[in-house]
Amino acid sequence: MSNQLSLTHTSIVLFLMAFTIGCKTKNEKDTADKIVLDSTIIDRDYALEATMLGYFAQDGTRNPTLRANQGDRVRITITNGETMTHDIAMEKLGIKSGTLLEKGSSTSISFWAKNNDTYFCTVPGHRAAGMVGKFEVVEGDLSGPTIAGVLPSKNDKPINLGFEAGSLLDWTATGNAFKTPLYNQDPSPIHEADAKISFDGNYFLSSGGNTNYKFTGTLNSIPFKVSHPYASFRISGGALADTRVELVLAETKKVIFSSTGQGRATLQPVVVELEPYLEKEIFIRIIDNETGISQIPYIKDDKWAHINFDDFRFYPSRPFFPNELNKDDIIVLPPLDPILNSGLSGKEAAKAMTMPEGFKISLAASEPDVVRPISFTLDARGRLWVVEAHTYPTPAPEGQGRDRILIFEDTNGDGTLDKRKVFTEGLNLVSGIEVGMGGVWLGAAPYLLYIPIDAEKDKPAGPPQKLLDGWGLDDTHEVLNNLRWGPDGWLYGVQGVFTHSNVGKPGASDKNRTKINAGVWRYHPTRHEFEVFAEGSSNPWGIDFNDYGHPFITVCVIPHLYHVIQGARYQRQAGEHFNPYTYDDIKTIGDHVHWLGDRGPHAGNFRSAAAGGGHAHAGAMIYLGGDSWPKKYRNTIFMNNINGSKLNNDQLIRSGSGYVGSHNQDFLAMNDSWSQWLNFKYDPSGSVFAIDWYDQNQCHSSNPDVHDKTLGRIFKISHNNDRWVQVDLYKASDLELVNYQLHPNEFFVRQARTILQERGGSPEVYKALKDILANNPDVTRKLRALWTLHVTQGINEKELNHLLSNDNEYLRSWAIQLLTEDKKISPTTLDRFVDLAKNDASAIVRLYLSSAMLRLEPATRWRVLEALVQKSEDVADHNLPLMLWYATEPLIPLDPERSLELAEKAQIPNILTYTLQRIDALNTLDSKNLLKNYKEQLTDGDKKGNQAHIMLIDNLLSEQ
Question: What is the dihedral of CA 600, 543, 550, 767, to 10 degrees?
Fold first, then answer.
């Protein structure tokens, strides 16, 4: 290689040779062709691979700048590098290719080069993810300047930094990755058959390639002096924090530069500025500490867990490489999290966990006493009702289920669940449980079941009753789950996005059923009504309510935390909203995610301990367990991070009409990769019980053999201040149950409210509750009294209307929700709503009004919405702009002209924009004329301020 110094990188001098096929230069063309503009002649033919990480040229360049001369005919062909939807479009030219889906499929665009432009993928989210690059029109030669490189030397001898000695002369290796690291074939025998390396000279170095990626080790060069202000080297391999090349100051061992590969085989040059280090000695350190070994069976090893290196050179000035690897183009994965433990016994697992000072954790029960616990709840005696999911993941034939329900009890307060009963067995695919209103409520797709309880025998008082059917089984880890009583007396639950349900009473016709495939639902235990409370999200596996009765869910894959508003539509992991005119949905309240890296949530699994552990969450508990735990935990939400084996804790901070979720320090680390807590709840003492589906496999598989069938644990977390108490609220009098509404531990509050709901109200109960509502200074206690009055039917419309004038925004807002419970209101109440819409200063009250409108017939909404959309203070609110749109949209088919007048007055910009789109979707002659007339009004007015809507109308009308 030393004889070729003046010809270094001659193979990449011309930019087009890297990824241009069959290209004619401008000087080779006949002038007449320019005049005729023969579109069959392609002057610049570019071939790119399309992936979510970007468009890649054949030489490895990510989103290369594509160049052409003025007037050239250009063709850009993209080939799909993965099974995913991709295309390519030119922003200014307004042209777009066909859409690709299958890996290996191709499509192209062709155009005349006139102006600089941008190429990008039009699939929503793909441009933001990095599928975007520049197109430039240039004069003359398209290649850049050529600068000869200089091989570093020591003692007047060139150093073996290109490995042309055929050995590791001048290098020192540790580990097994660099025992036989030199290769002279392209592709090499340790890379994929189609992996073009494009190395210089006779040899390049690899720490194992795609074959021996599990090898690890370090390679250090001898020190040498920096003789020029710039350097380059060639690199490829994994975009992993632990596969990298470092330049290190010899004297101080300080790393002055580092680079990984970008997850491809082709070697690309990296340029380093070294002027601050001239005349100082450095050495090269090549590191591969990444094994790529997957921690769980169903995820493949990362074969890019290696590094390829070649050809270090110095330069007198900055060199130009058309396929230079820029740091901004590398999306690096963090290092793998260490696996401290796995496969521990229950007692060992408890000892291995770490948590804040003042807390302790103990093993309450484990296999064989409990196996595969998938859901649990507590009854009014503080006992645990636990579902063992022996049927999961594949439902058994009808009548052949193997799931069962166990009742556990700690009889002496030592933290061990020493008493165990089998309540019932033979159930099928049970995924959620709640107790109350005289029975056990079970999510067991395709059914919502109710089993009456014989309280004396702790046995069923009759066979399971099928309350609802039609729950989907498409994806059995996204079925209905996490049943929980809401403060309003409804039974709440959640369901995932890839399971499609059409829910109704057994035998109901399709028109009497309700579709749901992601979201929050509720069922009334006495009226037997089913509703979708809010739609969207991904696979929620946890729901809970804070002190103000506001529900929150935790989810997977997409950002993890949502404040749930009645009637809202939330960001979806996949699929479309049932209403095609949704146009946009409400996003997470989280100001953070629990995964690291820029390659998406899945890539961050097992590499995100510093951020919380990863994207997958199970369980939701807003801690309201009394005064024994430090105050900082009250009203914060806990969720288990499955891949990270951590109990995350987020702060819920009021903001506008809703909340912001901020990351607190993780509460607990299981330090065990098999740990999989699915839910957790506080008990009468304020301590928390947690069920652990303990399994090496950390994700759903339809293969039953992937999941362990013998393990399961229940743990108990206690603070030093917790004091064990034995309770039996079933024996309490009605007035005692009322007084429990003042208890600091929400366990007593919720259990007492549910028992009162089952018993029904009485004048004595109503009087005591109304005294709390009127006179207690704490609004959370007032709310408890209000909810209990509602579930016992002890408050009427007149009294709720009176609360609309209360000075507390939470009471006003809850009065609004309870008044619209039956989906109809009196004219008097509607007038009160209009007054609130015009004059109430609270964003949360306006949010509840918006939500309430979605429950009322569209024709009754006009006056309230006309007032709400004019609130300029809500323009930047997290929820209100879209909630107002959801409530407004059904008005447009009723009266397009009045709707447009409403939208014109709106201070919230999306209302007018979406109204124009919705009017256009009516697709009638009248709707088209309405848009045309409105455009004329805009054109006659302030054209600059109206330009966006003028263009929108033009586009809408031109699409017909």
Answer: 180
The tokens 């948590």 sit on which residue?
A: 355
**DSSP per-residue codes, 8-41:** TTGGGSSTHHHHB-SPPPGGGS-HHHHHHT-TT-
Q: What is the DSSP letter of 738?
A: H
Residues 6+ apart with CB under 8 A from 776: 742, 782, 785
Answer whether 240's CB lies under 8 Å from 305's CB.
Answer: yes
- Residues whose CB is less than 8 angstroms from the CB of residue 832 and which lie 6 or more positions away in sequence, other chains included: 801, 804
- Residue 33 contacts by C-beta under 8 Å, 6 or more apart in sequence? 41
Instruction: Give the max Cα distance, the chain.
Output: 103
Q: Beta strand pairing status for 132-138 and 66-69?
A: parallel
Name the percent of the chain in helix, strand, coil, to the closest 5.
Answer: 25, 30, 45
Q: Where are the beta strands (DSSP E) in 609-657?
A: 617-622, 637-641, 646-655
Ranges of beta strands (E only) in 260-355 are 264-273, 281-288, 307-315
Q: What is the DSSP code string of 424-443?
A: EEEE-S--EEEEETTEEEEE
For β-strands 243-249 and 171-175, DSSP reports them as: unpaired
What does residue 883 show for φ and ψ, rounded to 5 degrees?
-60, -40
Is the pLDDT higher at 140 or at 885? 885
CA 266 – CA 300 distance, rounded (Å)? 22
Q: What's the mean pLDDT in 482-492? A: 98
pLDDT digits (tens, 9 = 90+) for 42-97: 999 999 999 988 999 988 888 999 999 999 999 999 999 988 889 999 999 999 99
Give every CB contact of residue 410 below 8 A, 6+ residues apart in sequence.
Answer: 364, 382, 416, 417, 418, 419, 724
Q: Tokens standing for 743?
A: 């208890």
Strands 44-51 and 54-57: antiparallel
Inter-residue contact 451 to 410 (CB < 8 Å): no
Q: How far apart are CA 188 and CA 203, in angstroms?
A: 10
Show the tokens assigned to 276.
Answer: 């601050």
The H-or-E segment that residue 543 falls in is strand 543-545
- The candidate with the shortest Cα–Cα distance to 760, out of 794, 785, 730, 733, is 794
Contact by Cβ (8 Å): 67, 138: yes
**Residue 755 near residue 732 (C-beta atoms within 8 A):** yes
Query: From CA 503, how far away is CA 469, in angstroms rounded?
Result: 6
For residues 884 and 852, the answer to whether their CB atoms sit within 8 Å is no
Cβ distance 857 to 881 under 8 Å? no
Strand partners, 255: 248
Q: How many helices and strands (H and E) does the chain possess?
A: 19, 50
Q: Are 536 and 518 in contact (CB under 8 A)?
A: yes
Q: Does position 3 have pLDDT exceeding 50, yes or no?
A: no
Question: Phi, psi (5° rounding) for residue 819?
Answer: -65, -30
b/e for 3-12, b at 16 or more Cβ within 10 A?
Answer: eeeeebbeeb
| Region for 311 from its dihedrals, namely left if φ exceeds 0, alpha if ψ lies in -120 to 50, beta otherwise | left
With tokens 């270090």, the residue in question is 312
797 residue type, one letter = E
Q: How many other CB atoms sit within 10 Å of the CB of residue 202? A: 14
What mean pLDDT value characterizes the chain?
93
Instruction: Show Cβ contacts of residue 267 under 8 Å, excluding neighbours closer than 6 positions.
Output: 60, 197, 198, 199, 204, 234, 235, 236, 308, 310
447-451, 647-651, 704-708, 928-932: lowest mean pLDDT where?
704-708
Alpha carbon distance 163, 200 (integer Å) = 10
Contact 337, 607 (CB under 8 A): yes
- Is the C-alpha dihedral spanning 517, 522, 528, 529 positive or negative? negative
Question: How many CA atoms lie within 13 Å of 635's alpha carbon, on the beta-carbon side?
Answer: 14
Look-up: residue for tokens 């869910």? 553
Q: Which two tokens stand for residue 317?
A: 């000035």
